[in-house]
Design goal:
This protein is α/β, with parallel strands linked by helices and 310 residues long. It is 32% helix and 19% strand. Strands 1-3-5-10-7-9 form a six-stranded mixed β-sheet, with no helix packed on it. It is elongated, with a radius of gyration of 32 Å. It starts with 47 loop residues before the first helix and ends with a strand.
Amino acid sequence: MTSALPPSAPPTTAEQPPGSWPPPPPTPGPASRPQLRRSRSDKVIGGVAGGLAEYTGIDALLWRVGAIALTLAGGSGIIIYLLLWLLMPSAPAAQPGNPATRRPSGPRSPVPGITVAALLIVLGLGVLVTQFTDLDLGPRGFLGSALLVVGVGLVVGALTGVGRGAKGGLITLGLLLSAALLMVSTVQLPNGEVGDRTYRPTTAAGVQSVYEHGAGDFTLDLTGVDLADSTRTITTEIDAGLGDIDVLVPYAADVRVSVDNGIGEVRLFGDVVAEGFFPGSGSAAWSGDDDPEIVLTISSGLGDVEVSRG
């Protein structure tokens, strides 16, 4: 009596049956891209440039030089930096005894670095043209030129596709430039002082014809002006960029007001209107005669505007 042979074990990977191919090696997944966060270790002010450097592979020094160039070329670098500071979350703090290690990544594309370098060259040429010729590009011209350079870099990065970081950083930069271009097209940024300012003239001659204010709250108090001694209409213009505007006028004065405001609420003598004629009150001979004693023209970029009596 013969016993049955035990079943043979299935062939292992090393002992494949004749004519069969070995299984292919597992393919590695795509390298994960780091999140766009403000750096805690590489920072001068808020870690924005360090975070952009970690995300795109472009040295943080180039980002800082670009921000300075945009600031000198019309002040838009400050707007972009503040937008990034608000939109980019801070990187998590490294645990004690467990320092953060950077994950090895694949080869990076040279396209972003070349694009940023070309961007700085274009901005430098724009500054030279503005300084030595009669052509004034202004913030819109500088931002539009910068956005054009970034667009060319995106096209080249999309066509080449070499390495990683060729598009993500440039897309982020392009979105920021677009937001800054939209803001400077809406918000007026005149030359003027920075900080809260209050003016209290006591005579009609002491009222300036134009008040220019760059950033900060602005207050013009005309309640101390003696209208009885004024032989002419007091006409003044306020041209402000960022900040609230508050104008106080005498109760007896007939006032004509016109406001051009970019972003913010306009309130004239309690009404939400942007222009109008507002007669004064009281027993003065000039009150309510349809002839304004004060004419105000207000241009504001970002902030609330209020004209009231005091």
